[in-house]
């Protein structure tokens, strides 16, 4: 079921893509997190995929 409302689509994509991933354990963290919530590792990467780039 495609989402037709562009505003809802934007929100959904933000919720899915804008997060931080722990380098150590791969846990998803809040976008504002500075350390991993599971292993306290400070090395987090942004999960910011470019939209429409899936293959
Ligand atoms: Zn971690």
Fold blueprint:
Layout: H1 6-17, E1 19-22, E2 28-29, E3 44-47
Antiparallel strand pairs: 1-2, 1-3
Bound molecules: zinc ion (ZN).
Bound molecules: zinc ion
Strand content range: 15-25%
Order of helices and strands: HEEE
Fraction of residues in H or I helices: 10-25%
Number of strands: 3
What low-confidence regions span 5 or more consecutive residues with pLDDT below 50?
none
Largest sheet: 3 strands, antiparallel
Number of H- or I-type helical stretches: 1
Radius of gyration: 13 Å
The largest sheet has its strands arranged as: 2-1-3
Structural class estimated from helices and strands: alpha+beta
Query: How many angstroms does the end-to-end distance come to?
Result: 20 Å
Give structural notes:
The chain is of the alpha+beta class. The protein has a domain at 19-47. It is 22% helix and 18% strand. The protein contains one helix and three strands. The chain has a three-stranded antiparallel beta sheet. Strand 1 and strand 2 form a beta hairpin. The longest helix has 12 residues, at 6-17. The model has no long low-confidence stretch (mean pLDDT 84). Bound molecules: zinc ion.
Brief descriptors of the model:
55 residues, alpha+beta, three-stranded antiparallel beta sheet, 1 helix, 22% helix, binds zinc ion
Briefly characterize the structure.
By secondary structure, this protein is an alpha+beta fold. 22% of the residues lie in helices and 18% in strands.
């Amino acid at each position: 079921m495609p989402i037709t409302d562009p505003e809802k689509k934007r929100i959904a994509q933000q919720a899915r893509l804008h997060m931080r991933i722990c380098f150590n354990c791969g846990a998803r963290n809040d976008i504002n997190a500075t350390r991993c919530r599971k292993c306290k590792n400070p090395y987090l990467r942004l999960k910011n995929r470019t939209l429409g780039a899936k293959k």
